[in-house]
Amino acid sequence: MSEPQTAATANPAGLIVMVFYLCALIPVLIGIAPASALIILVPLGLVGSIVQFIAGAIELKRGDVVNGNITLAFSAFMFYGAVSFMFKFLNIGPQDTSSVDGWVFLSMGVIMIFLTGLPLRAGFVPGLFFIITDIFFVLMAFGNLLGMPVLNQAAGTIEIVAVIALIWIIVGTIQNTAYGKDVVPMGPPWIKS
Known about the structure:
By secondary structure, this protein is mostly helical. It has 6 helices and no strands. α1 runs antiparallel to α2 (41-62) and α5 runs antiparallel to α6 (149-179). It is globular and about 50 Å long. It starts with 10 loop residues before the first helix and ends in a 14-residue tail after the last helix.
């Protein structure tokens, strides 16, 4: 059983904007919305990256080196996505940046894979989110690098599980912190400390 969190944390704010961002991205990846709908990622990504930056900075200030750095990395990734989509919609630069996007996704995926052991100690749900996110980044990387949209579609489909896990983490972190006890359990850790 994970320990209930008693100190206030800014991390849920960064996760909430990530849920918004992913819920705009997933329908396009799985093919139920047109690519033109990605325009919504520009404001979501710009505002979301600011919220995540602030949340990450607060977490680092609290001494939470794991959540702080990961949240800041997601902030940069979200900003990259927002500016990239903005340039495409404004017809600035090339429309197809998949070869570069693939390497960006791959680098983020490799970093996330190396950090996954830490959340696996935090509980079942945080561990599940990281495992799914690792798979998402690898699928997106190779989907872009190999020009295989089916991999991007698979990434979008699996990311639905990550969104559900994120919502659980958000609600659990806020509720558990507010009540000072495990109201919304995160489940047993994948790896015991």
